[in-house]
Please model this.
Amino acid sequence: MKKACFVLIILTFTLSVSAQDLIIRTNGDSIGCKITRIDTSEVYFIIFDNGAEVNTSLGKSEIRSMQFGAGEMKQENVPAMNNAGPSVSPDATQTTKNLSAAKKKRVEGIFYFGCGLPAWQGDIYAYADELTLAMYDETGIDFNFKPGPRIFPMDVGLGLGINITSWFTLQAGVELSPKGMTYRGKGSYDEIDYRMRITYKTNYIEIPVGIMLSTRSWDRPGERFFYIKGGVAPAYNVMAKTRVYVYATDGYDSDSDSDTSDLDGIAKRDLCGYAAVGFGKKGGTAIEFKYEKGTETIMTSGYSDMTFYNTSYSVNLVFYF
Model:
């Protein structure tokens, strides 16, 4: 009789072990558990931590498939089990073993880099005329200078985001932001063609502070989302250079030369406003398009009677961590 009872206990234990449910996440991780309830967006289950039962849940978007003891059943084919067991207690999600805790990350790091098309606004065409006249007086060549942006200088930044909700985030950071302007002209003299490029490089350290509104949801952490953001960025000039490049050819032979010198008269500070739109994945990467405009004149008071303002269009690759 005792032997029969022992066999019965072993058999019952074996059946309970073999009846354990299995969840396969989209990242390949496996979770041994007891599934208790399934609704339209969540799967609720029990895991065991040091002999204690822990109630938790995962969004369906995080689950590749589920196995109910005897066989595998894909997530989208699993029938509703609203009465299969107890619902999850709100306090149960606070345990350190809760697998859905990552969905409500309150603080996240941000790293980004990219390239842009910075330029000046203001008296840029009047200054082009002055450059053309000055070079004609100096060389006798009419270069007919035209203004344009610097071509794809690199920017890089590091920041911090505080998620007030899944869709509303406060952000702040520090960024190396290139600004400046390029003037290009060409002319001919004594059967030689000349091309000249004058580039004004004015790089800044910026401290962007703003808000981000997105379509992110803590219930769907694996889904991609759109966002818009904007704010202000105090900027401090850390480099001001002028680079002059000249190319000459007579159709057979050619030569070029360049020279870089300090650019005087640049103001030390600016206050920029920015706006951006992006598309990405929480905990992953995003691509962002950004517009920025300065509110202070670039030149120091009394150095020039012309006014210039910083502007920039840029595209960045953003990493969330």
